[in-house]
Amino acid sequence: MSELDVQIPTAFDPFAEANAEDSGAGSKEYVHVRIQQRNGRKSLTTVQGLKKEFSYNKILKDLKKEFCCNGTVVQDPELGQ
């Protein structure tokens, strides 16, 4: 009998590149996505913590098109947009 080359798949980490780039300790910024249940099947989703360098209106436009829903960017005196 001959030895067969058996390759055992190793664990794949899809976030390995992101973790390597984000090596700064304590510099993590989180994006909070909250889903509030309203009446019945209705819900309200809020997103908070996006960087200011992103265009909120373009992100909103793409999300509305992708998920066939409505949305708005709200200006808050405490939290900003």
Automatic annotation (TrEMBL):
GO terms for biological process: regulation of translation. The keyword Phosphoprotein does not apply. PROSITE patterns: SUI1. Gene3D superfamilies: SUI1-like domain. It comes from the Eukaryota. Keywords: Protein biosynthesis, Translation regulation. Belongs to the SUI1 family. This is SUI1 domain-containing protein. It comes from Nyssa sinensis. The lineage of its organism: Eukaryota, Viridiplantae, Streptophyta, Embryophyta, Tracheophyta.
